Description:
Blueprint: H1 5-16, E1 28-31, E2 37-41, H2 43-52, E3 56-61, E4 68-72, H3 74-95, E5 97-102, H4 108-123, E6 127-133, H5 142-155, E7 160-169, E8 172-179, H6 181-188, H7 219-223
Parallel strand pairs: 1-4, 5-6
Antiparallel strand pairs: 1-2, 3-4, 6-8, 7-8
Helix pairs in contact: 1-3
Amino acid sequence: MGPRWGQEGRFIADRFVRVNERIRAREIRVIDEEGQQLGIMPPFEALKMARSQGLDLVEVAPTANPPVCRIINYGKYLYQLSKRQHEARKHQKSIGLKEVKMRPRTSAHDFETKRNKVIEFLQEGAKVKVTIMFRGREMAHRDLGFKMMERLVQEVGEVGQVETRPRLEGPNLSTIIAAKKAVAKSASAPRPAAPPPAPATQAAPARAVASPAPKPVTSQETSGG
Length: 225
């Protein structure tokens, strides 16, 4: 059995968290138990305030400038720290890698059910490991499994894309499909309005064609000869 929340939190805090006299910064930003800012002050002054309330001074943001410390009960802080980590692991486990298993001779109805489950997981943002399991004589017809996998990948293509190409793992055929986050985001975003049609261009006015200059009359033409 693993450590309880308090035990786990104390282990983490004892290794990484500075508390009370262990705080070494010259100045710190102080917040109280309710999250209200009390200003910037030396650690000894903040520790004096904490002691007067029967509480502790805990460094909660050591990389900030100046570091942020909170006046809080140390045991309560450990509990909150462990609870947050527990919830984070729980969320990571639930949204991490899902698996859907199939057989190469799955019926059409079961195939649709499995496909819809893959789509559901992908829409939640999870990766899905699809495994086609071969048993007995099915091992001689792995081409059926590859065709089924190819069909599945195509039918979930709008929301997922292959991250690990289909490959044999012992008697099974597996692939990992990841969610198309960018595609899902762009699909949910409103499309920009189409630009108004450009005004019809008017034809340029035709230029007047200059009539040729009159040909000069020669002396031979006037003599009638």
